[in-house]
Amino acid sequence: MKKALLSANIAFKNFILFLRPSIFLGWSKSFLLLMAYTLYLSKWIRAQNKTLKFNDFFVFKKKHSKRELLYEHVVKQQNLENEIVDYLEFGVASGVSFSWWLKKLTNPENKFYGFDTFEGLPENWGFVFRKGDMSSAIPTVNDDRASFFKGLFQETLLDFLKRGYLTGNRRKIIHLDADIFSATLFVLTTLYPYLNRGDIIFFDEFNVPKHEFLAFKIFVESYYVNYETLGAVNNYYQVAFMVK
Ligand SMILES: C[S@@+](CC[C@H](N)C(=O)[O-])C[C@H]1O[C@@H](n2cnc3c(N)ncnc32)[C@H](O)[C@@H]1O
Fold first, then answer.
1. What is the distance in A from the centroid of ligand 1 to the CA of 146?
2. Which of 1, 17, 125, 128 is most deeply buried (CB count within 10 A of its CB)?
């Protein structure tokens, strides 16, 4: 029975490939993927809504500054002001969120690492943003706890890790704000061996189905990552997780 099912499956797949469906339906692939991942996202949000207390779902208008309420909530809930932490931000641009964290976490032992091309997005993002958009000079922060790493994450992060910047015994706050799928997935998978229970991960554009959400989904499913959702604002546009 199993053998017959496998043979039927292979025959069906070969038939579909023989028909070369991309010639007729190729135009629809991006839309179909968007629909499929929107359904996954919606299902995931429904599950979170059952228990997640710090959550504004559903609001009609996104207010980007609300992300600071999420940061405040996590800082307070996790007592981060009384801990020595490593803060890593992927996608710094002009440093708005980076500076918020620098000001908030005042312990002189904290370290703040910012990664960015500082030449803008390395590829197009959605319909609106083009490669090179969001380019910005390295921010001036006047705080010697902060360091910036200029270049693609794919070029700078491995070297950063090899050089032993992460000591291992501090809690990490990882802020993912690169917007795009490839960058987000690369950072998550590269940092996976360094993740410890209690580490916190923020996403800044989480509810974009084919980008940050997809990277998160692939990551947690591929590495069997256990996590707790700490809070969300703007209909899950900004979300915070803790590794369990
Ligand atoms: C939305 S902006 C960051 C905004 C910033 N966190 C803030 O709150 O002001 C996204 C940034 O991600 C950077 N970025 C995206 N993909 C990258 C990659 N693979 N390597 C390095 N930087 C990347 C872009 O250069 C851009 O500056």
1. 17
2. 125
- What are the tokens at 101? 């964290």
Question: Do 104 and 207 lie in a common domain?
Answer: yes
Phi/psi at 233 (5° precision): -135, 165
45 is a domain residue: no
Separation CA 117–CA 81 (nearest Å): 29
Tell me the per-residue pLDDT of 5-37, one tens digit each, with 9 for 90 and over. 999 999 999 999 999 999 999 999 999 999 999
User: 26 alpha carbon to ligand 1 midpoint, in Å?
Assistant: 30
**Best of 97, 173, 179 to mutate for ligand 1, by most ligand atoms within 8 A of CB?**
179
Residue 221 belongs to a domain: yes
Same domain, 18 and 57: no
CATH number of the domain at 103, please: 3.40.50.150
**What's the pTM?**
0.97
Nearest CA to ligand 1 atom 25: 120
**C-alpha angle 206/35/178, rounded to 5°?**
25
Q: Is 122 in the pocket of ligand 1 (CB under 6 A)?
A: yes
* Residue numbers of the domain that contains 134: 51-243
- Tell me, in angstroms, the distance from the centre of ligand 1 to residue 95's CA: 10
Q: Summarize pLDDT for 82-140 with one digit per residue, the tens.
A: 999 999 999 999 999 999 999 999 999 999 999 999 999 999 999 899 999 999 999 99
- Does the structure show a pLDDT above 90 at 41? yes
Count of domains forming the chain: 2
Residues 77 and 191 in one domain: yes
- Cα–Cα nearest to 241, from 178, 208, 197, 186: 197
